[in-house]
Amino acid sequence: MATAEEVAKAAERRDVRDRWLLSAPALLVILFAATGPLLIVLVYSFLTPGAYGDVKWQFSGNAWTSVFLERDIFDDTLSLAAAHVTIFWRSIKLAVVTTLATLALGFPTAYFMATRSEKTRDLWLFLITIPFWTNLLIRTFAVLQIIRNEGIVNTILLKLGIVSAPVQILYTDTAILIGMAYVYLPLMVLPIYASMEKLDFRLVEAGYDLYATRFKVLRKIIFPLVKPGVIAGSILVFIPALGAYVTPSVLGGGKNMMLSNLIELQFGQGRNWPLGSALSITVMIIVMVALLAYVRNAGKSGVRHG
Amino acid sequence: MPDKPDRNAIEVVDVSKIFGSGEGQVAALDKVSVSIRENEFFTLLGPSGCGKTTLLRLIAGFDFPTAGGILLYGQDIAPLPPFKRPVNTVFQSYALFPHMTVADNIGFGLEMLGKPKAEIKARVAEMLKLVKMEALAGRRTGQISGGQQQRVALARALAPQPKVLLLDEPLSALDYKLRKEMQIELKRLQHETGITFIFVTHDQEEALTMSDRIAVMSSGKILQVGSPWDIYDKPAERFVADFIGETNFLTAAISGAGSGKARATLKSGTTIEATVAEGFQPKDNATVVVRPEHAKLTKDKGDLSGTVENIVYFGTDTHIHVHLDSGEAFTVRQQNTRSAGCGFERGDKVGIMIGNDAAQVLRD
Predict the structure, then answer these.
(1) Which residues of chain A are within 8 Å of residue B61 when distances are taken between CB atoms?
(2) Chain A contacts of B98, Cβ < 8 Å?
(3) Which of A81, A174, A209, B281 pairs with A241 at a CA distance of 20 to 30 A?
């Protein structure tokens, strides 16, 4: 007869084994579908480009040098690759501005939703998720239809006599920002809403009771308490915004190259797979550093929900 | 009762509050008027849904009255937002800020008022001492017990030295012993700070033990305002008599009413002296109330007669339920002794003696 202790231990062992078995499929997918390709990209970044794309299995650090530097054709000196830096900067700027814009729009939206009655809340939540039903490309073209010179916005502005000639919005930075904000807004609203919904609005009343004005209540009570949602939303928007491809191309008219275009170029006409790989990993590193800095900074005065 | 200055801290004048609109509208308060004196411990007592919390929220400024005015030392504050009223609230759920320490919670009001840092620090220390929480000043509010949270909530509301402190059933979440302790603590704090307290509760015992005056509310109206003695011994209406403590209702024919007294002839034929609710001229027939502890059971013939139906032991006393010959029910409360039982058994034929000055004629 096994003692009670042995039985308990055996049960615990079984428990652990079951847990591993159950999570095995997910772990395998992560291993082969995410980690595997990443490793391939990492390896490729240290190889020599092949003449018609692909790679030659010959070690080279050239790809990494040319991420930010370029070699002069005549005297072989290295100098800063201005074109790459500009593209990086443009993409980072767009991602930051998109994050800020969606935050500015999404925070009040989430607040509005969270303060509705329970029934209407579900309706608003449903409405927010509707854009997800459509393909990104189609959504982007929809924005294009709205802001183009013969689109709704310009037609209305002309009819009302506010402008005499159509305002050129399409193919400008503004167009890109409008499109990005529209596409990524739900990703900001949903996590903030999830935090906001849990917020005890009696705390807001307590704030008013203790002489805090509306703005002070927002800054001192609501914002600190929904910060986890704001952080999650910012991450969810920033990462894909940095690698955005479709929206800037369609609405920006492809005039200004983005990081995603640059990387795509290396794997396409550029026939420089190692450089494409090195650029991809650089983007990843930028994202990781930015996230670490952001989370650590935000976590300093962050809330521990207990 | 100690002398209270006759200055009014709060005057509620004909206040109505209607929630919703059209068919679904509900009058939470119906032309309520009441004056709360400076420095008093005033309790709004009533069952849930009677409008007591609504009245408190109107005074705090979380809701605005549909009609009527709320005066704070003569100034109408009804249209002001809560952050412009020198009134603070202790919430039923405490509503402590979870992202701040105990000390930061207590200092929040002062900080918002723009007080200098040194003053806030001194005041917070003083408040921590007042509620005996010095040792836990640096803790997060999630790391302290319910009773401690209660103390912090009190300190937070008292720190800005409000003209009036509002307490919305602050003790309801505490267990029995802690609640008893906090009742005494609250009285002490009110005495030490000299701030007017408006206390909302549905617990009649709490109201009786703590208040200087009580307003009994039901269905959006104030039925009676008075000292705990008045409310308990001279209830004006059936609802008040029924809600506060246990009581016996008897139908009686009234004669010779005048100067607050009347003669009540009970169904048993006995006539007793009874007091009459203030400002009320009773008709021929009325209801008379007698508290169970103001009547005595005898084996002889009494003012009333009946049969013992049930005997319930309560430790300090025993409740004897009697079915009167007139068909009415009557409960007598009898103090227990250690040596003897209550002296009666189920089925006994008994008489009930009603003490002098025990009966009160109700308004309805």
Answers:
(1) 208-209
(2) 203, 225, 303, 305-306
(3) A81
Output the CA angle A141-A143-A144, nearest 5 degrees. 60
- Is the model's pLDDT at B3 over the cut of 70? no
8 A C-beta contact, residue B15 and residue B55: yes
Angle at A181 between CA A121 and CA A238, to 5 degrees: 100
Is B113:B160 a contact under the CB 8 Å cutoff? yes
Contact B98 A225 (CB under 8 A): yes
Q: Kindly report the CATH number that applies to the domain delimited by B8-233.
A: 3.40.50.300
Q: Tell me: the pLDDT tens digits for A7-55?
A: 888 888 999 999 999 999 999 998 888 889 999 999 999 999 988 878 8
CB A183 within 8 A of CB A136: yes
Distance from CA of B98 to the nearest CA of A (A): 8
pLDDT of residue B251 exceeding 80, the answer is yes
Enter the pTM of the model.
0.81
Domain locations in chain B? 8-233, 246-361
Domains of chain A listed by start with CATH number: 4-78 (no CATH), 81-300 (1.10.3720.10)
Contact B141, A200 (CB under 8 A): no
From A206, which residue of chain B is nearest by alpha-carbon distance?
B95
- How many other β-carbons are positioned within 10 Å of the β-carbon of residue A93? 11
Which of the following CATH numbers is that of domain B246-361: 2.40.50.140, 3.40.50.300, 2.60.40.730, 3.40.50.450? 2.40.50.140
What is the residue whose two structure tokens read 């709004």?
B44
Instruction: Give me the residue label for tokens 């009686």.
Output: B252
Reported as a single tens digit per residue, the pLDDT across A133-161 is 888 899 999 999 999 888 888 899 999 98
